[in-house]
Task: structure prediction
Amino acid sequence: MEFLKVTKDDGIARVVLSRGKVNAINEKVVDELSKCFKQLADDPTVKAIIFTGEGKFFTFGFDIPEFLSYPKDDFIRYLTKFTDLYTYLFLYPKPVIAALNGHTVAGGCMLAISCDYRIMVSGKVRIALNEINFASSLFAGSVEIMKLLIGQRKAETAVYSGAMYSPEEALELGLIDRIVSPDEMETEAHTIAEEYAGKDGAAFKSIKHLLRKTLADDFTLREKDSILEFVDIWYSENTWKQLQDKTIRS
Result:
């Protein structure tokens, strides 16, 4: 795979996103992640998965410059794949530990909150669903998962403000589960993955299904409409200008 590095060690798989400085998400990344996680789901030797990024970013979200060249129909196709991916992770039959090695923003945050556990490095890193700051919307699933994690009122505050939360703020909010130093990340993530891997796989899959399937069924029914609304806003004059300005500044 071009943008993923996958290793396996004693029942624990490690999936590393590696695409440039910020690990920006494009259609090829989504295709590779979907294929990779499906292969690991079918691998009986894999009991738990660590999902992380390379460098100082977990992922900074969508590759905006690339998507500015997408016609609407192509962008809808991509967004359908992306929302299908985080829904798949949300219901994934095996434990997935998000080892947030750096900034985890927008689409990157959506992937992270779909996992079972989030461990984040300390320091000047940030996590956010900040789409509103560049005049963009969200998706039905991303909002419902956010509400599940931190509650309705805190979710409203987070997505209306577009706040970029420090690890300490995110921990207090309930957006992440643990903070570690960068030097400890790999070891601690592996320890957590081992704890999950030690549980009976069939029981874990069943309980996760009971906890999450009803919510996923509900937001899946509304996801297509939320994608179309997202696209309408994305291609609006105001948002398009902000996206172009953001691209120029970066």
User: Anything to note?
Assistant: The chain has one domain: 4-197. The mean pLDDT is 95. The first strand starts at residue 4 and ends at 9.
